[in-house]
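Q: Entry one of two.
A:
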Amino acid sequence: MSEESQASVRFLEHTADIGIEVTGPSLESVIGEAAMAMTRLMLGDAVPLGEDERTFEIVGDEPALLLRNVLRELLFLYSAEGFALGGLDLELEGGEPGLKARCRAHGGTPGDPPKTELKGVTLHGLRAEREEGGWRARVIFDV
């Protein structure tokens, strides 16, 4: 995703939870940055790079649900297999509604326990919307 360098992330304070707000030029860049921000929340800046890879498809009726479903899958991979995201390649298909993302996640196994344990990706305040100049998304994680 060549547009990643134009994306930005802002961490949000929330009672008993933690959130992020992501902006970027495309929905793909926003989902990719949100995924990497989730990894940084869990592991800090020491994101493990490795040659381990996971490929999966995710669907969502609208952009916000697609974003949530991608993040939930990545959180599951971390919780169940210890797979920590080092990068994400996305390919979107379809239109609203009925988006599908083909994801190729690459990364490795973290050496240390998580800094922040994320329990889930909530629906509270969830959004992913097109705005002038690109996309904006907001995600709250249950900690």
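Q: Entry two of two.
A:
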Amino acid sequence: MSRSPRSDAKSQALREAGCLNRRPEAVGDPLFQGSRFFDSRDLVQVKYEMVRRVTVDAHTVRAAAADFGFSRPSFYQAQAALAQEGLPGLVPKKRGPRGGHKLTAQVVAFLQQEREGNPKVSARDLAALARKRFGIQVHPRSVERALERSGKKAR
């Protein structure tokens, strides 16, 4: 089925939202074949229909996962996310750490105190102090950003 320019806009929107299915060709469920409504590029719709197949239509997890191009563990993750959060739970989450996990409030308070005692101390020196005091290794730019967020301008 050829995609119109409007569907190209949809692909872009799905990509920007993080909901573009990277493997739409793996979706073999009949509903998604040649349908204008069911779109195998829409990851949230594909996962929802996969879970619905098992829950409502009584398909096996193994068959549904295979038909929709997912593994069984991916099915169970989607099922749990849908049960806990509803449809928003099927939207992929950003990967990686969330915020400065090394620069805790205690460490930032220490760095602020050091900066107040010596306003000319560099971010590199503050990073070295954090390593000596707390045993953590942080980049000087991370120190600068943490101090900027806390309202203390770093040099």
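A: Comment on entry two: The chain is about 55% helix and 0% strand. The mean pLDDT is 90.
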